[in-house]
Amino acid sequence: MPLVATAHVVTPHERIPLQHAVYRRIHHASDLVVAHSEFDQRRLLDEFSVPPGRVVVIPHGEYGFFARDERPDRDEARLGLGLSPQDEVALFFGYVREYKGWTCCSTPGPRCGRRGRGRGWWSPATRCASPPLAARLEEQAKHLGAVCRLEFIPFSDVARHFAAADVLALPYRHVSQSGVLYLALALGLPVVATRVGALPELLRDGESALLVPPESPRDLAAGARPAPRRRRPAGAPRASGLRLAQEHSWPAIAERTEAAFARLVRG
Predict the structure, then answer these.
(1) Strand, coil or helix: what is 33?
(2) Is pLDDT above 90 for 88?
(3) Which of 135, 161, 216, 234 is the most exposed place for a label (fewest CB within 10 A)?
(4) pTM
(5) Please, are residues 189 and 93 in contact by the beta-carbon 8 Å criterion?
């Protein structure tokens, strides 16, 4: 019976002992390995010597199901989260891990000051890695006048967080792809992201997102700043992001998956 594995990540974002040996065995155990990007495909071929005929690229699917229910408008969402309509809000959303570059969000850039002056970073997260890290993040958020939520965000509340934001910040240090990115695209939220991993492969700078260098709080702040000023019009980044989300719909992903399985079964 053929065995197929999806390499959602080629290797863990946080290293483990004997990482290369362990994942070499994992990737070579399957008759077909699904990679989510050409970036990951190259890693499988170059770093782990997986034969080219045993790797297929099938992108990550979008999270449009969060947009099916009626979404609150911006001001209503902000009222429920203790934010002002005048705040300029950059959202960092998801697990708090060092590789995601969250420290760039908690470091003031040239135009990122306290929320009392109308600027600031807002960083809700689903879970934090450790109590010391949580305390550090909360202290830095307090210093910036930002809102920090280190708690589980239920599915029913996810769309409200994205509706309240002006831009999603993805300051990754390294990554292959991001599920949170697909969520923002499906919900029409502008994105500022770093040029790492497969992100430049998916996003076009100035069209579907603004791309900045990694490890640069100044560039991140400058990149996030224009989107709040425009107050999220139906402009190019939003329209291009929605088109990208449609191209990565789950029916389209299912068709590509079925075709790959069929080729494998046929031999």
Answers:
(1) strand
(2) no
(3) 234
(4) 0.81
(5) no
